[in-house]
# Entry
Amino acid sequence: MALKFDTDFDPSYGQGVTVAPDVLRVTAKNPGPFTFHGTNSYIVGRETLAVIDPGPDDEAHLKTLLEVIADRPVSHIFVSHTHRDHSPLAAQLKQHTGATVLAEGRHRPARPLRIGEINPLDASADTAFSPDIALADDMVVDGDGWAIRTVLTPGHAANHAAFALEGSGILFSADHVMAWATSIVAPPDGAMADYMASLDRLIERDDRLLLPGHGGPVTAPRSFMRELKSHRQMREQAILERIRSGDRTIKEVVAAIYRDTDPRLHGAAGLSVLAHLEDLVARGLITTDGDPAIDGIFRPPG
# Structure
């Protein structure tokens, strides 16, 4: 069965939307081909609150968050990863609330840059971000009537984390799993092997609802993620078949298997193909001269 995306989503800009008991969603007005209608920030709790993913450095979004928070104290700000649509507003929100900022760590690539390599995603990295507390895997933070468990999910970003609201069956999945589209996995920021391992980890959980960083909820998480895994495996197989049939460059592969994709996304598609090729080379299924590179020549082994 083909993976079906859900693009039916009302961002309801400028207001808080109840998405679960004691969970409000506030969507930033930063729509685009990579952010859909914008970044979702979540406000958790009833009296003393937690904010998950404060979002981009945007005064209008900060104003809305503060209006929805009203006069309630905020004790914690959780950040899923350090892309500029998720983490930059943490600093201003901390100034207004005095909350503690928590995340896996500072921004870093999934692997070191190779000689002569330029990271095309540098512009999207929030390199100024530094958490007050570094979150370890499976770490539980207790708040006022809520507890949030860190589930590290590297892949989209090296420091990506999902957050489980204990006792609720809710997982804030950020950019790892979204209902509207697949997550971008683009080296050197991300790594496909890491992404697939993290996806397997989430499939093994028993969450009943995923609240992602963009778009609407995933209401049947386990079946959706199994289909997502199959989709990734089919994409890997398509790349293998293109190389085996004579394609030698990422540009040729993208032109063939992403021909129905928005051309604005072809650059990201090329990086996604590179992520697959890095994994395929590591597994000995594809060869290349030296390290896999965006402008490399790829061929079957032998």
